[in-house]
Amino acid sequence: MAQQQHSSRSILIITIIVAVVLIIVIWPLSMIGKGSVTTAAGDEPEVRIQPVAKLELAKAAAVKSDGKPRDGATVYNSVCMACHASGAAGAPKAGDKAAWAPRLAAGTAALVKNAINGKNAMPAKGGNPDLSEAEVKAAVEHLIGLAK
Ligand code: HEC
């Protein structure tokens, strides 16, 4: 019994050693082609944070005004979709004709005004003060188009 316990423990230890050796050998190999083979230790943190930093930049670029007005679909996809795709916070879902019918009856101008100024859980400009009124209007028209 004691002998068997001993041998199963050494098998476990050998397995761990083999796994560690494999990781040490294979991990640097997997870095080949990612440009960090020679200075794997030095560059490692940078390499790891890179994708996150890129994502944040891409997100900011999609939302930030660069002088050119974005079209309704772009604004909808970068800002409004957060609530209007899923119906989060009680938002009328994009394309849900029943939810939009009574709102459409109020007229485009009223909807644009509410989208710019906010209404109940709907934040002003969808929570993005960076948007111009024309961009919000374009996004509202995009939503109206989806609801027709
Ligand atoms: C944080 C979630 C959220 C975001 C982001 C959001 N909305 Fe809304 N929206 C709502 C909610 C909730 C309502 C329902 C408000 C109500 O009628 O009580 C609503 C309602 C609306 C309405 C109908 C207003 C009315 O008069 O009935 C329009 C139009 C609208 N949103 C447009 C937009 C546009 C355009 C954007 C993007 C620029 C946007 N929303 C982003 C939550 C959101």
UniProtKB/TrEMBL annotation:
Keyword RNA-binding found: no
Which keywords are on file for this protein? Answer: Electron transport, Heme, Iron, Membrane, Metal-binding, Transmembrane, Transmembrane helix, Transport
SUPFAM superfamilies in alphabetical order:
Cytochrome c
Q: Is the keyword Transmembrane helix in the record?
A: yes
Q: Cytochrome c domain location, by residue?
A: 67-147
Q: Which Gene3D superfamilies match?
A: Cytochrome c-like domain
Q: Spell out the PROSITE patterns in the cross-references.
A: CYTC
- Name the PANTHER family on file: CYTOCHROME C5, PTHR40942
What name does this protein carry?
Cytochrome c5 family protein
User: What is the native source organism of this protein?
Assistant: Candidatus Accumulibacter contiguus
Q: Taxonomic lineage of this organism?
A: Bacteria, Pseudomonadati, Pseudomonadota, Betaproteobacteria, Candidatus Accumulibacter
